[in-house]
Design goal:
The protein contains eight helices and nine strands. The longest helix is centred in the C-terminal third of the chain and has 19 residues. The radius of gyration is 23 Å and the shape is elongated. Bound molecules: 6-chloroguanine. The site of 6-chloroguanine (6GU) has 12 residues, from strand 5.
């Protein structure tokens, strides 16, 4: 897959490309990652990417021409164009999986001033990474690129995404490593038992417990298996005893 980020701050993505799993994914040709500086597409002497808003008011607005020319310089029939704005639909794991299927993803970053509305007619969708305001789309492009790249074949161990928080709609179960006792805090007995069926069931139960405690919204409207129903009943009973 190829990811192209259209931005006036290409340096923002330097450490991202040079670090850890993303660096290795690029080196192993699992992903090609590039930045395109749309300031290089301006036509005026001062290389302005923005101008004052029609109708008056505070701030500036990103103009169509440099952004659309930058987009056209890299877009093909296989490109999927995403605009990053706080008005977009919320980015969730399901969307990361969907975006990871495209051959060419183009991420368009604006900054605080906002885009000329007409730019929206050149993009396929608009995404936000959450309900808060950033100074620009760059951190969002970085978040989306990271979430997408780790899903590509050969980037991380195949099995590790199956246990991801959210991949089955539940938060991840608690994990422990050596020592078995740290300052009197003990690792749950079942994990030391080597009994794989019991360990699997304990993990499912703890995933359910953590999700119910922290993110009950994720359980609303979810279908439960017979086993999950039983484990949820056990959790409810345990909570009754505590009180
Ligand atoms: Cl994609 N852009 C900006 N500027 N702020 C945001 C955002 C995007 N997502 C959440 N807040």
């Amino acid at each position: 897959m190829k990811i192209s980020v259209i931005t006036i701050f290409p340096e923002f993505f330097d450490s991202f490309q040079m670090t850890s799993i993303i660096k290795r994914a690029i080196e192993n040709n699992r992903v090609e990652f590039e930045t395109i500086d749309f300031r290089n597409f301006t036509l005026d002497k001062h290389r302005h990417v923005d101008d004052t808003p029609y109708g008056g008011g505070q701030g500036m607005v990103l103009a169509c021409q440099p952004i659309i020319d930058a987009l056209r310089s890299i877009q093909t029939e296989k490109s999927h164009v995403v605009m990053l704005t706080p008005q977009g639909s919320s980015f969730v794991q399901k969307k990361a999986v969907e975006l990871s299927q495209y051959e060419h993803l183009i991420l368009l970053c604006g900054h605080y001033e906002g885009f000329d509305e007409r730019i929206r007619s050149y993009v396929d969708e608009e995404i936000s990474i959450g309900d808060y305001v950033l100074t620009g789309g760059e951190p969002a492009a970085l978040v989306i690129s990271d979430a997408v790249i780790r899903l590509l074949d050969g980037v991380i161990l195949e099995d590790s995404h199956e246990d991801d928080s959210f991949s089955d709609g539940l938060l991840e179960y608690p994990q422990y490593t050596k020592p078995a006792d740290f300052e009197g805090k003990k690792v749950p007995e079942v994990l030391l038992s080597g009994h794989h069926a019991n360990i699997r069931q304990w993990r499912l139960k703890e995933s359910l417990r953590k999700t119910q405690q922290r993110r009950p919204d994720l359980l609303k409207g979810r279908m439960f298996t017979k086993e999950e129903e039983k484990l949820l009943a056990e959790i409810a009973e345990e909570q009754q005893k505590e009180h």
